Each structure stands twice: as structure tokens, then as C-alpha cells.
Structure to design on (225 residues):
């Protein structure tokens, strides 16, 4: 079992729909990152969370430390949101501090 | 622009050739990392450097060496390239403390034939 599990693996939506991507992890963490990668592109950090909720534009990220679960929401989705969204957790100390462990990614396609 | 700069962006090597991937950051981050990304495998840590002067193995270090030249630069060397090292390589850097920002380079697409 992977330490970081994302669901779904693939997601197709129509423009304007509300989208949720889930991430569950099984290790202690100091922070959780949501990353975005466009086809053939680099990796951009969208959010870093250690508790609660963050919002940036149409993107909302939440984390529940007790349940070891995080969600990324996209409101009013748009075709330019089509990308791979990756959940990554950051080690909480010792030799794991700072290193990221990644989920497999969720491929999002938003149709006009 | 501030960030992480990787060179080259693309490279084709023949089996057995060597090369060095360069990475530099200008954000005064202490820690730097090299990851590889493969279809179906996600991103995996090759080597990391928690601070200037230190380097440690990650999940998949075999076939690679690294050098933390100074606080800004962290290079990855393939001494004898193999087809299994065909991948996209990302350098990243991060800070400690409250900011704890994590920034990735734009990637190097390496093909070993």
C-alpha cells in the first residue's frame, strides 16, 4: 500500500462543474502540498497545508490531520484547469524531514 | 525571476555516456532535492541535500551521484547512462521554518538510447 493515495486517478468534468480530488496518507507529516502539472510542463506548488483550510481564487484545499486526509476543490472548473494534480506529504522529522512523498496524481480533464 | 533553474531542458545520451544535470536556486533555501518522474511511478527522490555540505540518498540513488557545490547549486551526475535512466528529472528546493516553501525547477527530459 502506498503511503499517499489519491482518488480518483482520472477525472473528467464539464466546464463549470465543482471538482473534488482526495488524498489520504498513512505517515506522520509536517505539511501537505498540492501540486499542479500541465502536460509536458513543470510542477507548481498550489498549496502547502499543515492544518485547516486555504483558498486561492477558485481553488480550496482542506486537511484533517486526525483523519490523515486532504481534499482539493476546484469551483467553476475551466478547461485551463486540465492538468495532473499531485498530493505530496512532507516528512515530520529526523531523516524524513523536508522530503516529499508523492501520490500517483489525478489526471483532470475539463471539457468546454 | 526568482526560482529554481535547471539545465539542460532536453538531452539524449547513448548508453554508457556520462552527463551532469545542473540546478541552481536563488531563494536562499537550505535544502535541495533531485526527483525523477516516470509514467505509472510518480515522482521519486533520488538524492537530497538538507544543507550546504551534506548529501543523502533518497529512494532511487543507484546510478547517480550528486554534488552540493554551494548553497545555491546542486548537481546530479550520471556516470554511465543506462536506458532505465530515461526519465524526466526535477530539481527542487525548500526552506525550513514557517515559510517552508517548496519550489520545483522546470524539469529535464532525458532519453538514453
Amino acid at each position: 500500500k502506498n503511503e499517499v493515495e489519491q482518488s480518483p486517478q482520472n477525472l473528467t468534468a464539464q466546464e463549470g462543474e465543482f471538482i473534488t480530488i482526495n488524498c489520504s496518507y498513512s505517515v506522520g507529516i509536517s505539511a501537505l502540498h498540492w501540486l499542479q502539472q500541465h502536460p509536458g510542463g513543470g510542477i507548481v506548488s498550489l498549496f502547502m497545508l499543515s492544518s485547516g483550510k486555504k483558498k486561492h481564487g477558485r481553488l480550496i484545499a482542506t486537511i484533517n490531520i486526525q483523519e490523515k486526509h486532504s481534499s482539493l476543490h476546484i469551483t467553476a472548473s475551466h478547461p485551463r484547469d486540465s492538468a495532473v494534480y499531485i498530493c505530496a506529504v512532507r516528512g515530520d522529522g529526523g531523516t524524513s524531514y523536508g522530503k516529499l512523498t508523492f501520490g500517483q496524481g489525478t489526471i483532470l480533464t475539463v471539457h468546454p | 525571476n526568482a526560482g529554481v533553474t535547471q539545465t539542460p531542458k532536453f538531452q539524449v545520451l547513448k548508453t554508457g555516456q556520462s552527463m551532469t544535470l545542473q540546478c541552481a536556486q536563488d531563494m536562499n533555501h537550505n535544502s535541495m532535492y533531485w526527483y525523477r518522474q516516470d509514467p505509472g511511478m510518480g515522482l521519486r527522490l533520488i538524492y537530497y541535500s538538507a544543507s550546504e555540505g551534506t548529501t543523502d540518498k533518497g529512494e532511487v540513488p543507484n546510478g547517480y551521484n550528486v554534488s552540493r557545490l554551494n548553497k545555491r547549486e546542486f548537481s546530479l551526475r550520471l556516470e554511465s547512462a543506462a536506458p532505465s535512466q530515461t526519465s524526466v528529472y526535477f530539481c527542487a528546493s525548500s526552506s525550513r521554518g514557517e515559510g517552508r516553501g517548496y519550489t520545483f525547477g522546470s524539469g529535464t527530459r532525458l532519453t538514453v538510447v
